[in-house]
Design a protein that fits this description.
Elements: H1 2-20, E1 28-38, H2 41-63, E2 68-72, E3 94-99, E4 104-109, E5 115-125
Antiparallel strand pairs: 1-5, 2-5, 3-4, 4-5
Amino acid sequence: MRGLLKSSIFLCGFAILGMAGATPASAGCELIKATNSAESPRAAAQASQANAAESAEAVKRRRGWRYVTMRARKVEPDPFWKAVRPEVPKDILIKPDIVTRKTYTQCWPGVVVPYVCTSGAVACGN
């Protein structure tokens, strides 16, 4: 009986290790950060979210995935004109942040353009 139990545990562990190694090398995830601007915070958010979706599709093509999924991930705001504003001060971020299933978006008033938003996501596929 004890031998049967040891054999069962060994086979179960071997099967789990085998399943873990069955994932193709091309599978994985990538962080996406997309920034866009517009005349209003809403339009800038929509543009940056659309940009994030396009970036996820580009990752899918580049990595040869059959599908791609996205989930929201908060990232540091990424200003366009880093010579003018190298970082976005936390106190100028427009609240609330816009969080969907696919993107986490933060917006702020721009220096050169009216409004800027950065959307973050994790794109995963296989």
